[in-house]
Write a structure and sequence with these properties.
13 strands, 11 helices, three-stranded antiparallel beta sheet, alpha+beta, single chain
Length: 362
């Protein structure tokens, strides 16, 4: 179904394009394991392909899995995606822990939940996500039946005519007349010549019922609801007016992507980091700002105010704009004449320091 394909493409491409990094107390760091998620999880995939494929499987099968492969000193050396149709979550009652049964070519394997990444859609009791395709099954069948009906209606809507002859003709002559009429109509682009004694009348009929096109709107609305997407992202108007593209992007990020991103981050933090690493302040984080970039004028205004308020440093902004750092650009500044934040007031340019009537400095 084209609408479902569009929804899955938008979600998976959005997740695949989000940069992911390992941080320690707000500062990005690079380790061998973090490089797997940021660049290449295995020998055959980039990070973009890896996360996008996981999201495609999550949005179609309802679940996506990736198994960690360990190397020397119990370090994760690669991560591989597993066919979700071969995986079954199993709860072990004695230990109260979750395991995963993987049906391989040579038998079944059992993997502890910390050794396999599991991303899923919502679910009730149990540990397996509900497949959106299953939920949309009635919609898909309904849409398919309407398409079939439309094609049959279009096929039956060919031009039809009544040929009226002044004299009676026998059956053999009728067949000859019809065959000649058909060939002439076909070879001359639909142009007909009415001979003396022959009357040609075209049968008027409706080409296709326009209400059939309303089914497409129903399909888009249902698919958008199941995937929690703004319906305008699937080509249907939702009746809302947006002041800017930034507002539209913000709706998509807040209502659709944020829960998905949170699930990925927590799964990576829990299973790609040890408890000790988490205590030391390590955590994985997607950069959602990549989807919330405003137009140039609005962005420059925000950065201008951010620099003057010591929120950003010039080099941080230059890094986001993929520009090289400049000398002294790592210092935060305050408004005034943009003094470094650690410069004492006594060292500032006295010409710009004004004394108020109360004796205080501005």
């Amino acid at each position: 179904n084209e609408t479902i394909f569009s929804a899955v493409s938008k979600l998976s491409n959005a997740m695949g394009t989000l940069p992911i990094k390992l941080y320690k107390e707000f500062f990005p760091v690079v380790t061998d394991e973090s490089d797997l998620l940021s660049n290449s999880p295995n020998l055959n995939m980039t990070s973009f392909d890896f996360i996008r494929t996981l999201e495609v499987l999550r949005d179609t099968a309802g679940n996506s899995y990736a198994i960690k492969i360990y190397g020397f000193n119990f370090q994760v050396e690669s991560i591989h995606i597993v066919d979700p149709t071969r995986v079954t979550p199993i709860f072990e009652e004695k230990s109260m822990e979750l395991w995963y049964e993987i049906k391989g070519d040579k038998g079944s394997y059992y993997v502890h939940n910390l050794d396999i990444l599991h991303f899923k859609h919502i679910h009730g009791f149990g540990f397996k996500g509900i497949s959106p395709i299953d939920v949309l099954q009635n919609t898909i069948e309904f849409d398919g039946e309407v398409r079939k009906f439309s094609l049959e209606q279009m096929d039956g809507a060919k031009a039809s005519f009544i040929l009226e002859y002044a004299a009676n003709v026998n059956e053999e002559k009728k067949k000859e007349v019809i065959e000649n009429f058909r060939d002439f109509y076909k070879e001359n682009g639909g142009i007909l010549f009415q001979e003396p004694g022959v009357k040609i009348t075209q049968l008027e009929q409706e080409f296709i019922n326009t209400k059939v096109f309303e089914v497409e709107k129903i399909t888009r609305t249902r698919v958008a609801s199941v995937y929690n997407l703004p319906v305008h992202m699937l080509g249907e108007t939702d009746g809302n007016s947006y002041a800017s593209m930034e507002q539209m992007s913000l709706q998509f990020v807040k209502e659709t992507l944020l829960p998905i991103v949170r699930q990925y981050e927590q799964e990576f933090n829990r299973k790609m980091l040890t408890k000790e690493q988490r205590k030391q302040g390590y955590y994985y984080k997607f950069n959602l700002k990549a989807l919330l970039r405003a137009d140039t004028a609005t962005q420059m205004e925000a950065w201008f105010k951010g620099v003057r308020s010591a929120i950003y440093t010039p080099n941080e902004i230059r890094e986001w704009e993929e520009l090289p750092p400049i000398e002294g650009g790592d210092k935060a500044h305050l408004s005034g004449d943009l003094y470094p934040i650690d410069m004492p007031v006594s060292e500032r340019n006295p010409k710009t320091v004004q004394t108020s009537k109360g004796g205080g400095e501005n």
